[in-house]
Write a structure and sequence with these properties.
The structure holds 2 protein chains of 2 kinds. Chain A is mainly α. Helix content of chain A is 62%, strand content 1%. Chain A starts with 18 loop residues before the first helix and ends in a 12-residue tail after the last helix. Chain B is α+β, with helices and mostly antiparallel strands. Chain B has a domain of 112 residues: Alpha-Beta Plaits. Chain B contains 7 helices and 8 strands. The N and C termini of chain B lie far apart (125 Å). The chains are: A mainly alpha, B alpha+beta. Chains A and B meet through helix 2, helix 10 and helix 12 of A and helix 1 of B.
Chain lengths: 417, 206
């Protein structure tokens, strides 16, 4: 882990070098101090890989549990609460459930169709998971916690994220099942459609911050207005619009409801995952959640100020706690949305991307350009700058929404009498 | 405007989420093995034999081994063997009793016809549902010791129906007693008349 202290003048505060802030570094140095100097970097990297895998593995396990619990509560039922700690009767609200699920999927039979391409059928979940884990490398988890510092970190993140689409088609093709193949093509159509608004949504951030490095983007969002409003990009008109577009596209990219057409379980069997069972299916599931967590982490980095505290008075809480807090909030949002919205139809899905999100994202890019050009405006001009920027966001949204939903929405349902 | 419906929907789910924590009326789940739901009174599954006295279940079976249920049972899951001797039933009348009474619950279809046809209110429908066994042959064939359950238990599971049955049986018992009393009185009168009769014919002769 390249955990050198990043010299950022704006974010230096009395807490930036506190014991809690440095705790992960100290723990790492303590563990590797007995090694000879040339070996340390290697063990340090291996340690950070192990930490990422275990932290996000556990997070994945408990996100699945939280999802089932919250979906249950929203549907007025208690959710899974029976799995006890093994060999005891202690239940703790079913906190052992993810491990029971893991054991179940490990012990299930792994069925491979006779006609399948065995190598690719085996490789698809591995490749998918590998690329999903790769995306974790460039996210700044805390003030001193960036696994890999790349000066094109954002680019790397989305390149690795886009490579997962390869694995989706690999799974569909290698199954030698025409339904799997069709579903994989449909999944690709969705993923590629939403790749565009996803990318266009973060380009304004790069434009305004002037860098592709994730740490520098986070540093550019440091500071507070009147010690209350943080300088996060989500609190600018173009940032709010970009964040909304980014999250909608992230929903579609991670195959989450209401965009879960690739494996719509009530309509298809499991889409491109039809011929997968047991642990391979669990790997796909895991990769999907990893993708969701990584995209949320990137949304935090790009729009929600990364690991920055929302107020200078809250800086005594270490930065990685803030990052995890924001991550949990976004994941809760994903679950809440899944519990609320019905699934879109395929044509609605692609129309929404190409006719609504992409134009809005392009307009938003112009908005961000205006924002960075009007950086030096002050006094009453500042108000004008905000007004113009808000208008450029709200105007196209209302007009485009009205035009697209003309004759379609609001829907009137007629029932046979 | 576009999106207002979505926000409304999010509001509905949020309301349900919060409501499920503080409003017990929303959370209708009953956590089964620990908490059991109150079964409706009319719920029925397998038949059982009613006994008057729980301390002596085999001595006080209402069943008189008339075998009507055995003959009526559509899947023929009841098997009865009559006793050789008689013993007094609830009304004190000497009756036969079932030496063997067996129901094969793997065959029983819970149709309640045995209950409908029983003239003695001796067989009623039970409400047991935790009856899974690991032995699908002998464990599902219930003998009369396993089938016998007290009248108090019957009152517990079907209170209204049991009260009706008890009232009817009490009325029958009362009627039988009154009949017995009347018969005894008639007998006594006849006997008295018989006693008096040898004297009477003599009078015309006088």
């Amino acid at each position: 882990m390249n955990l050198a202290v990043i010299p950022v003048a704006a974010s230096v505060s009395e807490w930036s070098d506190s014991f809690l802030e440095r705790l992960p570094l100290l723990a790492r140095d303590w563990m590797t101090s007995w090694l000879p100097e040339p070996w340390r970097w290697l063990v340090n990297s291996l340690l950070s890989i192990a930490v990422i895998l275990s932290v996000f593995g556990l997070l994945f396990a408990y996100v699945t549990l939280a999802e089932r619990k919250i979906l249950g509560r929203i549907q007025n039922r208690p959710g899974p609460n029976r799995t006890p700690i093994p060999f005891t009767k202690l239940r703790f609200f079913g906190l052992a459930q993810p491990f029971a699920d893991g054991v179940k999927s490990l012990t299930k039979e792994d069925v491979v169709p006779r006609g399948a391409d065995h190598l690719l059928h085996f490789l698809a979940p591995v490749v998918l998971l590998a690329f999903s884990i790769l995306t974790f490398a460039v996210i700044p988890y805390g003030r001193h916690l960036v696994p890999v510092e790349l000066n094109a970190g954002v680019l790397y993140f989305f390149a690795a994220g886009a490579a997962t689409e390869l694995a989706v088609f690999m799974a569909g093709w290698a199954s030698r099942n025409k339904y799997s193949l069709l579903a994989a093509m449909r999944a690709l159509a969705q993923l590629i459609s939403y790749e565009l608004p996803l990318l266009l949504a973060w380009v304004p951030v790069v434009l305004v911050a002037g860098t592709l490095s994730t740490t520098e983007i986070v540093a550019a969002q440091s500071g507070w207005q009147f010690n209350v409003i943080p300088h996060w990009y989500v609190f600018t008109p173009w940032g709010a619009a970009g964040f909304a577009i980014f999250m909608i596209a992230a929903l579609a990219e991670s195959n989450r409801s209401p965009f879960d057409l690739p494996e719509a379980e009530s309509e298809l069997i499991a889409g491109h995952l039809t011929e997968y069972s047991g642990f391979k299916y669990a790997l796909f599931f895991m990769a999907e959640y990893f993708g969701m967590i990584a995209l949320s982490g990137m949304a935090i980095t790009l729009f929600l100020g990364g690991w920055h505290a929302p107020s200078p008075y809250l800086e005594f809480i270490p930065s990685y706690v803030w990052f995890m807090g924001k991550l949990s909030a976004l994941l809760l949002g994903f679950i809440w949305i899944r519990a609320t919205f019905p699934r879109l139809r395929m044509d609605q899905l692609t129309r929404f991307a190409w006719k609504f999100l992409v134009p809005l994202a392009l307009i938003n890019l112009g908005n961000a350009a205006f924002w960075s050009l009007s950086l030096h405006w002050s006094g009453p001009l500042q108000i004008l700058r905000w007004l113009i920027s808000v208008l450029v966001v709200v105007g196209p949204f209302v007009l485009l929404g009205r035009k697209l939903s003309a004759g379609v929405a609001p829907r009137v349902y007629r029932y046979a009498v | 405007m576009l999106g207002t419906g979505l926000l409304q929907g999010l509001g509905v789910t949020a309301k349900n989420f919060v409501g499920s924590f503080h409003d017990p009326a929303r959370l209708t789940t009953i956590e089964y093995p620990e908490v059991k739901t109150k079964l409706p009174e009319a719920y029925r599954n397998f038949p059982f034999l009613v006994t008057e006295n729980a301390t002596d279940p085999m001595g006080t079976l209402r069943c008189v081994a008339c075998q009507i249920c055995e003959k009526e049972c559509p899947p023929q899951c009841i098997y009865i063997e009559k006793s050789k001797d008689k013993k007094p039933d609830a009304t004190g009348k000497p009756q036969l009793f079932p030496a063997i009474f067996a129901i094969d619950t793997s065959v029983c279809m819970s149709c309640q016809i045995c209950v409908e046809v029983c003239p003695f209110d001796a067989i009623k429908m039970d409400q047991v549902y935790e009856i899974a066994t690991t032995d699908r042959f002998s464990a599902l064939l219930l003998n009369r010791e396993q089938l016998a359950k007290s009248n108090a238990y019957y009152h517990e599971i079907h209170p209204t129906e049991a009260a009706e049955v008890d009232a009817r049986l009490a009325a029958e018992r009362k009627a039988a007693e009154a009949k017995a009393v009347a018969a005894a009185a008639a007998k006594a009168a006849a006997a008295a008349a018989k006693l008096a009769a040898p004297v009477a014919p003599k009078t015309p002769a006088v």
